[in-house]
């Protein structure tokens, strides 16, 4: 058995609360987001895991989620690597817009396509496939080798950067990944085989029962 990979989506951000497209913009966590990150950290502490390294994005909402989790697991000084390869999908011209305003401007159907298609990017932004095109190489060259050496690796990132990773790990189709919604602050614990396939997956503190 090789190592363990833990993925956590950041807690609620200020712009999530305001129903704004966020992308590469950099709002911080809300009070609820802080609670979600602390709850995720508490679940990992109860699970009893100690990490060898952590990865996060260049955005403060993911970095602060990671910091809160590391405090909870008693590893505040853990080696942490930040890289924009793990950033949220870039929403381009939609960034900073209220989702209802975007629908009023471009139409319900068009905004739905941008949000929920696999390979249609919003103007000036990235599709989910584009996001995966930067997340996957980073995972394969930087993160996966450490897991395969037997290390325990924590990744705190974003809904779409993590969806593109889960798509590969869980062998989801393009249609399957579109239906995937990741809960904020809920750790997903993957144990990997030596050939990098998934031996097991556990969702900690998952209230929906969906694994």
From TrEMBL:
Active site, renumbered: 10, 88
The protein's enzyme class: isomerase
Keywords for the protein's UniProt record, in alphabetical order: Gluconeogenesis, Glycolysis, Isomerase
Keyword Isomerase: yes
Catalytic activity: (2R)-2-phosphoglycerate = (2R)-3-phosphoglycerate
Alphabetized Pfam families for the sequence: His_Phos_1
EC number assigned by the record: 5.4.2.11
HAMAP family xref list: PGAM_GpmA
Function summary: Catalyzes the interconversion of 2-phosphoglycerate and 3-phosphoglycerate.
Protein name per the record: 2,3-bisphosphoglycerate-dependent phosphoglycerate mutase
Natural source organism: Rhizobium aethiopicum
Gene this protein is translated from: gpmA
